[in-house]
Amino acid sequence: MMRGISNRRKYNAPQRRKDLADAAIQVLGNYGARGLTHAKVDEHAGLPEGTTSYYFRTRGALQLAIIDRLNELDTGALAMMSELAHDEKFAHPGTLGMARLVMLSGTEPWLTRSRARFELILETRRNADIAAKIVDYGQHFYALTRDVIVQWHPPAPPPDLGLIHEQTAMILTLINGVMLSYVAGFPAITDPHQLDSHIQGLLRGITVAEAD
Prior knowledge:
Elements: H1 2-31, H2 38-45, H3 51-55, H4 59-84, H5 93-104, H6 110-123, H7 128-152, H8 161-184, H9 192-211
Helix pairs in contact: 1-2, 1-4, 1-6, 4-5, 4-7, 5-9, 6-8, 7-8, 8-9
């Protein structure tokens, strides 16, 4: 009997961890860093007290699990951007796909995830493990954004790598600012076509400035 219980718990462990991470994202996004406790996650997930602490012994372990889950969820969302980049209905599919993805971060469930992510960013100064994971995620998003910008340029001649880096950095600065405005409750831009226009304007402006 005990062996059966042990095997069943082991079999369900990955899904249970994922469910707890999802609940923790909701708690962190809605109540902030101070509101993130094992007991609060148990309550939000509708599970017995002590469940979260069984799977994530420390608060730091729970925070790292949140980052891993956010990255998993964002990777799925970023796949949407890649699909839009190959949709011939759009004049600039890659940048419009990016703009639409950013717009999602102002609606649920993405808005709560955005709040949770910014809460964790604030923790990077106090927790080296969280900082390392945030940097890894940032590099992943940088690479995906860079790929979209490369597609924006004509295929020949190949764009200068220094230009691509500068454009990627500036576009990410714009995107992060827009996302932060959603988290703050004062959306700076609410239309994907408007954001796409700003993105393309930045790309053209930087391209011209680099050519002069």
